[in-house]
Specification:
With about 450 residues, the chain is mostly helical. The protein is built from 19 helices and seven strands.
Length: about 450
């Protein structure tokens, strides 16, 4: 018995209204799951020479024996445990729909194993950058969203191409004029409940490299005469009846970019990359685990806490997340931090050491040195004594005036502290008078 190769579901579903009713009910949770179950049920019925209607009427013992025989035959044919287990689940789903008991106690060896993924390794930052460099502009956006924002293919475009990310899901994208641009980076990406696998709204962020790819892509679409609104799809399907790109075509775009570089990985490996790199950043102390869970679209304590508030996160929490994502960006993209990022991190560390809280620093441009200097001077008292940096030749006069040695600076400079008890900046002594012809000769 070969694995299911049913080309179409329509003939199978057309044979009975109850089949279609069952399929529609499963599709309420996931249309993809409904289609898989229908294919698995059809394959089981062909293999066991029966029909779904006969399964619904079959006695418990007879059905269990049939399922056990199927599992044994499929295992001998070396089919994967996950495929066999999926078929058993489809049979049980149909039985449940018919109001009959499910089959229990069926053991499937390797039911949770994924042998085709056993050797899968997350790509390196250099490989991901190479993929982005070679990918066409549309596929570059898809790859960047998956690798650097962690979205699933179904977020870009769902199973049937009926929903997906829109420009309205990027609230910090400005569409006025002929040059769309992001007003903040990392930019907020809102994944709505309808395109979230776990069926909850969550947020993630797009780093600067993803924002640039999106801006370039949208400008390309504008140049071709397309009108962009908040309801416009982020990744256009091009020609066809679908409003959004279908998930299978999202994967095709990534796969094409991979194959151009000789990579044989599955498209989902880009999401594996995202979670792997954030795991590294978490180990470096750049981000807390609850943020990593949330950005990956998993249900965690952040989702549980704000689920009663229509999944709207407080503004201060979003900004805290944004700052954490900014710290992770070099680890995530593999790029060296920009000069502005380094300046912000140094400024935040300095001002934090001076007692400023994160809330006080929210409205401060930490890359603006003038603002940072002003805040620093508010917390640092001016020195009451002024040290002096003098040459070796000037040293005797200072020592005679009561100055004390503080340290060497280079080979010909000496740092001196003013005389004890000086109440403010102390004027340096007059430089020593150069020797004249009337001065006695120095002793030999």
């Amino acid at each position: 018995m070969a694995p299911d190769r049913t080309p179409r579901l329509a003939p199978f579903l057309a044979e009975g209204e109850d089949r279609r009713r069952w399929h529609r009910n499963v599709a309420q949770g996931s249309r993809a799951t409904a289609d898989v179950y229908a294919r698995r049920l059809a394959a089981f019925c062909r293999a066991m020479e029966t029909s779904p209607e006969a399964l619904a009427k079959m006695g418990d013992k007879v059905l269990r024996d049939a399922v056990l025989d199927f599992v044994e035959a499929e295992s001998k044919a070396k089919h994967t445990g996950s495929y066999i287990h999926s078929t058993v689940k489809a049979v049980n789903s149909w039985r449940k729909h018919a109001g009959r008991p499910s089959v229990h106690g069926v053991n499937v060896r390797g039911r949770d194993s994924t042998p085709t993924l056993a050797d899968e390794v997350a790509p390196t930052p250099e490989q991901v950058r190479a993929v982005l460099a070679r990918a066409p502009v549309r596929n570059r956006v898809i790859c960047a969203l998956m690798a650097y924002s962690g979205v699933r293919p179904e977020v870009v475009g769902d199973y049937l191409g009926e929903d997906g990310l829109t420009l309205g899901d990027l609230p910090e994208l400005e569409l006025t004029g002929d040059r769309p641009r992001f007003t903040k980076t990392p930019a907020l990406v809102v994944v709505r409940e309808g395109i979230s696998k776990a069926r909850h709204t969550y947020v993630t962020f797009a780093p600067s490299v993803t924002c640039r790819a999106i801006e370039d892509y949208l400008r390309y679409r504008l140049a071709r005469g397309e009108k962009l609104t908040r309801a416009t799809d982020l990744v256009s399907p091009g020609r066809g009846a679908n409003r959004f790109l279908r998930a299978i075509n999202v994967g095709d775009g990534v796969r094409a970019a991979f194959r151009a570089l000789g990579m044989q990985d599955r498209p989902y490996v880009l999401r594996v990359y995202f979670e792997t790199r954030l795991g590294v950043a978490e180990g470096q102390g750049k981000v807390v685990h609850r943020f990593v869970v949330h950005w990956g679209g998993h249900k965690g304590d952040i989702t549980a806490r704000y689920s009663l508030n229509k999944n709207r996160l407080p503004g201060d929490l979003i900004e805290e997340m944004r700052e954490a994502f900014r710290r992770c960006e070099p680890t995530l993209t593999g790029d060296a931090p920009s000069e502005g990022d380094v300046r912000r991190e140094v400024s935040r560390t300095l001002l934090g050491a001076l007692g400023y809280s994160d809330k006080e620093l929210e409205a401060v441009d930490l890359a603006n040195l003038a603002q940072v200097r002003e805040l620093t001077l508010k917390r640092v008292s001016p020195p009451s004594k002024k040290q002096a940096l003098v040459t070796v030749a000037e040293l005797p006069g200072y020592l005679d005036a009561g100055w004390t040695f503080a340290g060497n600076v280079g080979q010909d400079r000496v740092l001196l502290s003013p005389p004890a008890g000086a109440g403010g900046p102390t004027s340096p002594p007059s430089p020593p008078r150069p020797p004249s012809g009337d001065d006695p000769a120095p002793p030999r």
